Amino acid sequence: MIALIVIAAIALILGLWLAGAYNGLIRLRNQVENAWAQIDVQLKRRCDLIPNLVETVKGYAKHESGTLEKVIQARNIAMSAKTVGERAEAENVLTGTLKTLFAVSEAYPDLKANANFMRLQEELTSTENKVAFSRQFYNDSVMNFNTKIEVFPSNLIANSFGFTRREFFEVKDEAIREAPKVSF
Amino acid sequence: MWDQIRANQRRSAVLITVMLLVLVLLGATTGGALAGQEGIVFGVGTALIVFGVQLAIYFGAAESVLLAGANAREIRRDDSPPLFNVVEEMQLAAGLAFFPRIYLIDDPAPNAFAIGHKPENSAVAVTTGLLHRLNRDELQGVIAHEIAHLKNRDVQFMTLAAVMLGSIVILSQFVLRSMAFGGRSRSRSSSRGSSGGGQLQLILLIVSLVFAILGPLLAQLLYFACSRKREYLADACAAQFTRYPEGLAGALEKIAQARVAPTFANKATAPMFIINPLAATGQSVSLFSTHPPTADRIRILRGMAGASFAAYEESCRRALGRGVIAPGTLAGDTPATIRQADQAGPIESRREIADLTYRSHGYLPVTCTCGAHINVPPGFDRDKIHCLRCSSLISLPAVHMPPAATPTAMQYKRTGTSWEAFRCQCGRTVQLSPAFNAAQIRCTGCGQSIQVI
């Protein structure tokens, strides 16, 4: 009788722990997915802002068609990227080309004084920051999740329920890590 | 991050339970001392009712009362895109699921606070003085600190703790006062001759006196200790969100140097602010301060080697000789390096902030072709205005005009066929003769035609 109760109690505790650990993993995974969705929103927003920016710059800086071409190209590559790794790479290139574009726009005082350009610049600079901050949150979430599914004992549950490691959204080039610095 | 919120909630639960226990014991012993056994039930009931009423008041209207008291105006995205961008950036960095409303307070003292016990009515308020003084990095630090308060559910918890503290203070005042006037009831109960009951009541009396004197003190100490701990945690979070501790450190320095107390701060709202608004210098620290000394906070932030909680804790141990972050929070930490400075100036120029203030009060800023800047007051009902400098006419955008009143023809319903009189909209009395049988009549005052049915 007593043995039965002990066994039942152990089974109950085990069950509760199992449920808690499983829910914890689900919560972390959802957090990762939600964080990725946030990055996605910001990257889309950046892609949406670019045609507008290109149009505005075109009117003032006619000699910079090469730079503009590169920005459009980088945007198109970024929009067609599939995996997290590919996406990260393409977005890094886009960040770099945008940085160049803002740098060359320094030479055109009329462009810099244009209200539309100023608004776009604020939006793009901030979107750049937002990408960085949502990437930061995503990577923190991925690290928490990956650690959780590798350490004992939660790895037992992770393995049996098919939780797999997530990819980091990495910035390889140290120079690209900074958002474009634009002075007015 | 979730571990941290749950750890906070656990600690909150413990504190609330302890305070509730003090409250109930205070009620029980007082009731018992004054009126015997049935008094215990009565005392506990009173204690809980006092608590319930306070709770209802705070949670029903705390936000709107505080915001109205501070004369805060809600601003929209169009009013200040840069400010909204900074808040959005920090919302993303914190992984906060909701976007707080943003309020502007027209006050030269730089300060900021976050309120809201539920996501849907949470808000961040900043003063115009703050926007004037801080550059983008510093503002980001301050906003990150406030977002951290929202993320960690500090506001909810501190409100609950404040309510609890208030209830204990009210009840202990009640006890001490009733003791002063309660000699009569005690002598009557002892004259009943039940010596055992009398002894019990005497013990209860002493216990309730001790509770009445020590309860508020204890609750206050707990409350302020918690408040300080949460400030440190919010600082650590801000460093982690922004990856730039210097931003918040610089902001705290500038706010502390301003030495202007906001006009709207009082003792009850003090814990909500980024720096205690009542101690403008932030030098002295006692067991009864809501905020840690600003100098310490700056020293810890500036001594950080990275931007993680671990770096904050390490810097804190070096600066103060003790840690402030709970081990549970440190366990869920991720390494983070400090980013480079942004070098951007204040997010808006003085002119833009002034315009923002005007706009938040319903003014419409317009610029004339001559360069003059005019803030059209709310209630101005024409679609053009003369420039104050060159007197040329400026057309105002249509959004400014109140929706035009659709010209509804005035009607008068005849009641009979004899002499009748009614008042026109312009105030003139219009008379109808028995011989009148047309469909409309022209008012002699304003010339408007009025339908007669």
Brief characterization of the structure:
The complex is a heterodimer of chains A (184) and B (453). With 184 residues, chain A is mainly α. Chain A contains 7 helices and no strands.
Descriptive report:
The complex is a heterodimer of chains A (184) and B (453). Chain A is mainly alpha-helical and 184 residues long. Chain A has one domain: de novo design (two linked rop proteins) (Up-down Bundle). In chain A, 81% of the residues lie in helices and 0% in strands. Chain A is built from seven helices and no strands. In chain A, helix 1 packs antiparallel against helix 2. The longest helix of chain A has 59 residues. Chain A is rod-shaped. About 4% of the residues of chain B have low confidence. In chain B, the strands form five sheets. A four-stranded mixed sheet of chain B has the order 1-2-4-3, with helices on both faces. Chain B starts with a helix and ends with a strand. Chain B folds into three domains: 330 residues, no CATH class; 39 residues, no CATH class; 42 residues, no CATH class. Chain B is 53% helix and 11% strand. Chain B is built from twelve helices and 13 strands. Chain B is an alpha+beta fold and 453 residues long.
